[in-house]
Amino acid sequence: xxxxxxxxxxxxxxxxxxxxxxxxxxxxxxxxxxxxxxxxxxxxxxxxxxxxxxxxxxxxxxxxxxxxxxxxxxxxxxxxxxxxxxxxxxxxxxxxxxxxxxxxxxxxxxxxxxxxxxxxxxxxxx
Length: 126
Description:
Protein name: Histone H3
GO molecular function: DNA binding; protein heterodimerization activity; structural constituent of chromatin
Strand content: 5-15%
Pfam families: Histone
Family: Belongs to the histone H3 family.
Order of helices and strands: HHHHEE
Low-confidence stretches: none
């Protein structure tokens, strides 16, 4: 009596799943940042003294205004960061973005490293 044949799970070629995810996110209109968190941040910025010098002045935004502001912030900031990190990967003769590309991009943009460094078990330092 022979053993039944072992069926291997299907494995996609490298990059196929990544391209499928890219197409999926390009088709959707989902926001990358949560609405409530972005709304709190924008209210905090609007309540700062730099934007509203008069105390007691209350600014209200329509729901559509928050959505438009969030889309604009995503398009200008996050997409620009991805493009810059991709340029660093291409400069290193790679196609895949790595954490080092993001770290280099943040270093050149902000002047400091942003990724946490692990010191010991469970201890991270920024």
